[in-house]
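ASSEMBLY PREDICTION REQUEST
Request ID: AP-0331
Submitted by: J.K., bench scientist
Number of chains: two
Total residues: 760
Priority: normal
Notes: Please return the full assembly, not individual chains.
Input sequences:
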Amino acid sequence: MKYISVLGSTGSIGTQTLDIVRNNDDLSVVAMAAGSNIELLEKQIREFCPKVVCVFNEDKAKQLRENIKDTDTKVVAGMDGLIETAVIETAEIVVTAFVGMIGIRPTIEAIKAGKDIALANKETLVTAGHIIMPLASSMGVKILPVDSEHSAIFQSLNGENRKQIDKILLTASGGPFRGKTREEMKNVRLEDALKHPNWSMGRKITIDSSTMVNKGLEVIEAKWLFDVDFDDIQVVVQPQSLIHSMVQFDDGAIIAQLGTPDMRLPIQYALYYPDRKYLGGDRVDFAKLASISFEAPDMDNFVGLSYAYEAGRIGGSMPTVFNAANEKAVEKFLNRKISYLDITDIIRYCMDNHKKIDNPSFEQILETEQTVYEMIENRW
Amino acid sequence: MKYISVLGSTGSIGTQTLDIVRNNDDLSVVAMAAGSNIELLEKQIREFCPKVVCVFNEDKAKQLRENIKDTDTKVVAGMDGLIETAVIETAEIVVTAFVGMIGIRPTIEAIKAGKDIALANKETLVTAGHIIMPLASSMGVKILPVDSEHSAIFQSLNGENRKQIDKILLTASGGPFRGKTREEMKNVRLEDALKHPNWSMGRKITIDSSTMVNKGLEVIEAKWLFDVDFDDIQVVVQPQSLIHSMVQFDDGAIIAQLGTPDMRLPIQYALYYPDRKYLGGDRVDFAKLASISFEAPDMDNFVGLSYAYEAGRIGGSMPTVFNAANEKAVEKFLNRKISYLDITDIIRYCMDNHKKIDNPSFEQILETEQTVYEMIENRW
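STATUS: Completed
Returned structure:
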């Protein structure tokens, strides 16, 4: 039996993680955490019977405590509660599927407690890769990527010597606006941006995917996960989202992972690594597939991707600025407060007006995020 | 330093193996064998200074012995000589690039002597897989495939549990006549069949590639190399020859190996396995590539492939019949004695007129081959 803690159990990755647990008798959830969706969390508690759950929102936690009085599950709240679910003694692996900076501290504490991490929180490595990776290495814990692209790279590196990586080929669908110019994207409506051609995901990540900011964040994550230079990470647009990513080695061989777009695969792979286990679902039918096409990313029009490379290369606190500016800008776009192109203009503005901090501490990362939020609120 | 014996050093795989050795200071050739091309062999001896070389043809061996009197290389001849080069004490790995049944006995002796095998001789596993694989396993020697497709599968299996293979996806270019009906292939001339769209190879294998008999032989080899059922080996036509093959696992994940068509890659991979080393040459340029297309193989018109599955499923001596009939038929086609479609008609005829021997000994395999040759000579 493998015991799991799921941080962010009510979100897209969280519910799919529970779907994997539901189908496998040798997985058991001992802890869960959610932000405020206590209706869904209650159902999950009744199905999976965890020892402890955290509701980040204190009032909601109180309410849930009342609602599940008849169960044996303990309800905790706030950051202390979140950390309690992350370090729970029985868990071997923690799925960090909380969205936002809130996911970082519990991840650090889980690593310190020796838990393997099934990493789905993007902010963790983007903003604090320089803290997380050495810590994980010194604790001997595995950072198992749950993102489909990073999982594909991780699978492609299976059994290989990482010193022999020539470059990472990170694939991108190109999103719904692939082929469009910035001029043509001027009047993009929220409804258009929320239509991803291949993947069904949360709203924020769907917007990030349309701007290719998401791919930029993945580039920065890949740098940390696989210890490569930014020059050795190449984004390849592969609109059918069938090749999930590739690695080219020193001998010119490319190893790729392909499959139908199904997030349950990378989640299950992380939970069972290095083993694989049967997973139901559609298979690629090469007889029907016809073709996979490729193109270079258009960084002139999808400037978010080039800003990400720039922020990553500058390093220090700059990736935090990139991420925080995007987070706040997308929130405003989702609330119809700004236009589509404002998203990347805001990122540009914040990067231009930030003085980089080298090797920032976790506190400095949080401060940087706040400064960026204020910078945006003051101007937009 | 890694010491190598190269059987078939003057052929396509042999010369490319020596090219790898030429570019790597940590590889050394201690033995070589060739059929009769003593002009090239002499050049190779003067460059690589092996301890011993075998010329299969006794007269040619005598002549070479005279020609290289000034060197320290010993010249041996015939099957005994071939075996001497295969079991030479200093070699750790034997590249078996001899074409035809002649390659099998030295391979068996090399395995018995504990040498790893870089396997390029197709007949070895097609006709004697049931002898070779258990022997290699009991001797603890590695059978490292040199063929690009099998190497791709082998690379895709790196670090994976073979019990979790769902199916092998063996890619095929489809050859120069892809899309044609048998009727349209009636008048194929030798010159047309010798034009392979992507790979530069020997004449016999180029014809085999055009009929897809080559792919059929690879299907049978894959069965032995990777211990899978024929039902779990699917041929996928991928005309650009960019995906060299793939493996689908139980979880639906597909791992593939891609690259430019360059036989030096699988050769080098076998020589350095499990390591990789820099190899110069073209790299895939995904920005320029545009697309990779796929289709199902047309087994109704390329009947050679379906006959291979049939022979493989029947097992015993039938794959030997398939291979020997094809070998003799292609020889006749290369000598302009028969028409293009006669090749597969001859295979069909021989399979229909053979009574299968279960679990044939090496002697029975050789007898079967002779019987097939006679069967063909008597009729065509």
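REVIEWER COMMENTS: Residues 122-139 of chain B form the longest helix (18 residues).
SIGN-OFF: pending second reviewer
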